[in-house]
């Protein structure tokens, strides 16, 4: 069993403002959102409209950008691709950008595309799951959201009035979940964390109210050409949830405030890759994210054509 110790707070006592302030003071910038994300967006300006949909005013200002199809037509279905809801999950960010650069042109005749590659840029720079308020954006896609990152993209979509048909939310799990983020969560909430397992490989989280099992299978079929699919544990679970088909678990995304539940899209999936696996690489993980997006787009388009 792993240790529950964490350098901030008192075991069993939830954090107050002093502990949260101590936590944010300990965070340091480790990479550049502008160099690694925004510069890539600039390279795509001939193919997409670059939309600034918000501004985070933290220690530094972080403009929030998404890519929108230039040939937007109201009679086309809308596909939303999101990455970097958890800023530290690198392949989600880079996978969304890679899809925009390498594959999106194949889909713009049939789809209106919205690609928000880095919803949490402060988290990207500090390699963090939370924002500076020690809030998890991916539990905050709720009315009157306490997370500005989540609130900004929800407001933009509401004002756009887009009827989203497909939403693919790109995530990953890293060894730092056990070394940092799970202990921090237990410390923040004054609880004890007991599940230290995570799957070795790629898996999907569907929505328990609209599981769309055939779409999830199509996504996995595309991804397994790139990297391995996670196997269930001895309890037929992945990350503590029952496996509903190989490589898939379902969550109540809206009730949990997850990004995948924010639009009401009938087709939704959340990806999870494991870049620390000895059987995969950062490049494979980014390409797996691209394959997940294209697999979902291809499947939903095929269904619409029937």
From TrEMBL:
Cofactor(s) required, per the database record: Zn(2+)
UniProt xrefs under CDD domains: M14_REP34-like
Keyword terms of this UniProt record: Hydrolase, Metal-binding, Zinc
Domain of life: Bacteria
Pfam families tied to this protein: AstE_AspA_cat (PF24827)
Record domain Peptidase M14: where: 29-306
Listed GO MF terms: hydrolase activity, acting on ester bonds; metallocarboxypeptidase activity; zinc ion binding
Protein name: M14 family metallocarboxypeptidase
Species in which this protein is naturally found: Bowmanella dokdonensis
